[in-house]
Amino acid sequence: MDTAFRYWQLVCLTSSGGHQIQVLPQVQAWLQKTFPDLITGSDISERDLQQPLLDLWQSGAEQAELAQLSLRCFITHQIRGACVRLASQFGEDYSFTAPELFAKVLDDQGQLNADYRPFSLKILESYDPEKSALSTWASRLTCNHPGLNQVLLDRGLYRASDWAILNDTTLEQVERILRTYHLCSEYEVKQGVALLEQYQRVYCRDRISQRRAGGRRCQEPTPEQLQEMVPELPPKTVLAQLRSLASQLRQYRIHVRGGNPVPYQSADTDWGQIPDSADTPDEQDEFLQAYRQALQSCLGDAIAHVIQHNITRLQTRQPPQDQAYVQGLHLFHCLGLAMGKLAAQIGLSTQVQVNRLLQLKRLRSDVRHQLIAQLCERVRHQALSYISADRLHAIDHTLEHLLTEEVDQVIKDATTEAQIPKGRSAKSLFAHQLCSTIHQFMPDSE
To answer: What per-residue confidence (pLDDT) applies to 382?
Structure first.
């Protein structure tokens, strides 16, 4: 392993504010004795060495402290690298240097059993190898360290893209910011609110599809999206207006966080290259997977709730029609039987009676109502593992709007599928989930 030295060389702060490499001989000797193949192997990955070190540290065994110190050494290299990258990308434009960032995050002096817990140890204690690589986690926490962030804010650097800012600003917020902070005229306020509303309508709608396709960060709107937002203006003009609005919102955010707002710099700052806690690839994939599971789970729960409610209602009829109802849903959605052929199968005389019994439109409507409430609550809870409560509160309206659109699309797909007269199969998510759920209500489900 060419980078094995990182596990026994500690990057620490000097008295002059710079940094130096401190070799820890006891850690080096222990690693070379305990993991000789992992240290010298040419095809060994970082994770191959990190996992046994993590296991040993968490076991509390005799050598756990050496394993912890070795991992802290590695983390200090990641901390330094994150600071250097920020300074290289933005230091010249915003007047800060890497040593100014080092002073906030390089506080590990290589001590064991000390009362002081260095930042590297906090990173290690919060790390979950199932979610991301240790280097990714260390870089993310470094770039979101409160002290480091304050240095950047003092220089006028707020680490979020224009599009991320526009995504999680509510219409009420932009109205208040433009009117009370920027002292805009009523006309300018109305124009800004209308622009943000159209932006979120188009951009946030398409963002879900982008994430499904593997999109990582918030990308600049396409010409087609810009044209749809404001059809009467050229896309370049709309883009310029959006950037200007995002600049005003950026200045306000820097102000309220105690920084020094600077005028928007149109010199193509590549905000997409700024490390951002909301855009760690490993976490995006994990959150998207969790969202998909939540959608399926909540949809199944909503369908079960509505079917059970209808069964209870139909059991009171004379004669009871609950079993005919369940059988009819199964035959229609899962076996693809046409509505006109259902009557004889479930003991009814006409298709009109079948329609009145199943009430598919009402079924979908009731499921939609249940699903939106459950899904919003589930996703809000999951989101707190990835973003702060303050940010979740800021984007809550947008989140609910996006989830409602997603649920509406699920219902629309189910409606379209139900209108297919012949050869219908349970391809829609709604029908698929109904067919997975309905068996618990059938007579032979025991």
So the answer is: 75
